């Protein structure tokens, strides 16, 4: 079971940053969604 | 249900069973039965992870939750993407390197046999009870709404999937989950499209959003901190993180999914993609619930969505309640039209006026509803007075066209089967690998364990159906499963975190720390000091702190040198 490089992005930490960044983006979008529609 | 609905329902379920049996071919040994010889690509791992977590309760209870409490339940999932990252960094490489069948195997190599066995037993108790609820939850709803016998519905809900789970093991589980999820997504999309389509002429999706927002049903983010508040951004990020870390990192029903991946990379990508898609997916399911709420503002909502319970109230009283409730429904219908008209005209005074009248009518209608619930309780003190789980299916059965009703009911079965099948597979693997093989029969040939694995899958399937027959009065069932998980997950996670990061702490210390922590978590839960999501963090931290303290008190010769391999025989 060898550990390869990740697909699409050069390093694993970039994948991790993508997931955390996406979460922050979603939270920001949901915050705006809540404010706009309430 | 119409003939068309029965054909769609029967055809879908039989199709899945046949597909599962077809995928069961060629199973000969334990590595194939529990790990599919580590051959799965990342997208099957991803769909299998989602299919294991998303039970029927997810698709029934979540829209009802949005209907009654708004969309803030989505915050519960905010900790999940963070947990995916930690699991990819810390858990996945160790499990793959040690070539374990179960997560608990690792604990004997790191600590000792008693810690491994204790953790495996905690998992078995929690997972078996949760799976029983996962069978009962959709069964009771279907039986109430469609008049089916609850015992037979339980048997079909938890029984038919045993056919392909016993014969095909993890391969059949993963591939059927993939097909099931495709059908589920198509069905839920059609339901979402239909609820907007069924709104009155001239009322579109954006109008529905505006109305839902004014009625506080689009409250996705709640920033106020409150220990007892179940769903705010803080409990979601912190409590949800610990819960997701424990569930995906140490619960064999999930670990067993990504252990089937053909490499560390495929496991990681499957988990990380889950971190990307899970929150938006839950958002959309909850949004569907908010749209159902708007639908019932325009069209008459029942006093109580579980009509089987409502019919226990005597005739004249029920008629009076319904007449009063319909009066408020009439006001709601008028005011919601006035509200959407004022929003379109950007008439702020009109918006404020209609909003106030609509909220007042809603509050008055709720009072009638509360009275109805009191009458139900009087008529039958043992009655289930929480109808959250009935809301979405009530909408489906009474408003969707023929054929689509059958498909949506099939989806409830498929969602249940996906999570139950993975649970049975994990219960069997933990029983055979961590208990039977380790404690009772360590030197039998592989063929013996393969047969035992099939038998234990069957036995656990029967046991979970029996649990389902006794489950009742659990309130919102999605919460019941999460509360049950939170009682055990924190402690299990604490054991694993000590194993990974506290190399000086040995087996005896962590074993006693885990027992004391579990007792304390149950005391905190019974005392109702904090919301259940915090139990995950409390249990985890208690194990770490107590294990560290006990280790300090122990004589130095009892300190354990960490072992770097698993404990396969």
Explain this structure:
The complex is a heterodimer of chains A (38) and B (569). Chain A has 38 residues and is mostly helical. Chain A has one helix and no strands. Chain A has one helix at residues 12-37. The longest helix of chain A has 26 residues, at 12-37. The N and C termini of chain A lie far apart (51 Å). The model of chain A has no long low-confidence stretch (mean pLDDT 88). Chain B is an all-alpha fold and 569 residues long. Chain B has helices at 3-23, 30-35, 42-53, 56-69, 79-98, 105-110, 113-146, 150-197, 205-214, 233-250, 252-258, 264-298, 307-310, 315-345, 348-379, 391-399, 404-440, 446-470, 477-501, 507-527, 533-553. Residues 561-569 of chain B have low confidence and may be disordered. Classes of the chains: A mainly alpha (38), B mainly alpha (569). Chain A binds chain B through residues 1-7, 12, 15-16, 18-20, 22-23, 26-27, 30-31, 33-34, 36-38, and chain B through 38, 74, 78, 81-82, 84-85, 88-89, 93, 96-97, 99, 209-210, 212-214, 216, 218-221, 233, 263-265, 268-269, 272, 275-276, 279-280, 283.
Short description:
The complex is a heterodimer of chains A (38) and B (569). With 38 residues, chain A is mainly α.
| Rounded mean pLDDT score of chain A | 88
> Could you give the count of β-strands of chain A?
0
Query: Which overall shape of chain B is indicated by the principal axes computed on the Cα atoms?
Result: globular
Beginning-to-end CA distance, first to last residue of chain A: 51 Å
Question: What is the overall number of helices of chain A?
Answer: 1
Classification by helices and strands of chain A = mainly alpha
Order of helices and strands of chain B: HHHHHHHHHHHHHHHHHHHHH
Give the amount of beta strand of chain A, in percent.
under 5%
Alpha-carbon distance between the two ends of chain B: 54 Å
Secondary-structure element string of chain A: H
- Measured on Cα atoms, how large is the radius of gyration of chain A? 16 Å
Q: Helix content range of the residues of chain B, please?
A: over 70%
Query: What is the arithmetic mean of pLDDT of chain B?
Result: 87
Low-confidence spans of chain B: pLDDT under 50, at least 5 residues?
A: 561-569
